[in-house]
Design a protein that fits this description.
The chain is an all-alpha fold and about 150 residues long. The protein is about 80% helix and about 0% strand. The chain has one domain. It has four helices and no strands.
Length: about 150
């Protein structure tokens, strides 16, 4: 497995772990005690605003640890160069994630236009963002494996 593939796989796995653990934390800390919070816009705004720095900080920490472990195991530095192939793979995966998130955004707005509860919109937005990142990283791995 090439370095870019390993790095993408680490991002994919860490994203799943971060999102899963944060969701469980929010559920058991807040929602399990007071189910009425699910319709509170302040709760959703706070949950999203906390999710962003938590995700960024955890991803940075995980990638630093990954770079240290890679250096110890292989005695090689992480390859920071990117050629045209890497840039093309990145652009294709960004395009895929863009369309997935756009579809999720439209679904979230449709849920509000149909008169559904506000929490449906927030859950749909969160799920589409996570799904877009997951499929984007999966597409990168696929493109690297395919040799494209």
């Amino acid at each position: 497995m090439a370095g870019k593939e390993r790095e993408t796989l680490v991002t994919l796995i860490s994203s799943m772990l971060i999102m899963g653990s944060y969701s469980l934390y929010v559920y058991y800390t807040y929602l399990s005690k007071d189910w009425e919070l699910i319709n509170d816009f302040k709760f959703w705004g706070t949950a999203f605003l906390v999710l962003i720095p938590v995700t960024i900080g955890a991803q940075i920490g995980i990638h630093i640890i990954f770079a240290i472990i890679t250096k110890i195991v292989t005695n090689e530095d992480m390859d920071t160069r990117s050629d045209e192939r890497d840039k093309l793979i990145e652009l294709k995966s960004i395009r895929i994630s863009h369309w997935i998130f756009t579809a999720g955004f439209l679904l979230a707005m449709t849920s509000q236009a149909m008169g559904m509860q506000p929490w449906v919109m927030f859950v749909t937005l969160t799920a589409s963002g996570f799904l877009a990142a997951f499929i984007s990283d999966s597409a990168k791995i696929y493109f690297y494996r395919r040799g494209f």
